Amino acid sequence: MKRKIGLLATGRKKLGHPAPVLEFYTSPLFQKSVQYAKEHYDAVYFYNAKDGLLLPDQTLEPYDLSIKTFSIMEKKVWARKVIEKFQQYESPEKVEVYLHGGKVYRDHLEPQLEEKGFEYLIPMKGLGIGQQLAWFDEQLKQSKS
Hints:
The chain is α/β, with parallel strands linked by helices. It has a single domain, classed as Rossmann fold. It contains 5 helices and 7 strands. β6 (95-100), α4 and β7 form a beta-alpha-beta unit. It is globular and about 45 Å long.
């Protein structure tokens, strides 16, 4: 049986001082995604525009950078680096990836996952932020009952 791996986006709301990934991002969507991931996945990785792939205990410094400012080529290079680093930790034959994050990220991560042979699912494809928050609330409520 393949291990379930969460590959999660971070968020815009951040602390103004260095902190580990799990504390650094403060948006409700990020916090709920982390809570969900801890309950449903065997391992979790994160990604942001500045650093690419992040480990949960990695300490980050404050930054102000959005992937929306990247050119198409920069987005492709960014995504390739994220998945190449991810491949240093996980093997396509052993995992199923659950990709969380906005379309602006997924449009470039998905082709890289496919190229490297990773199976992946997008649990909240097509949902807006409000719908994603509601989805997490529903899933988290079900896991408590």
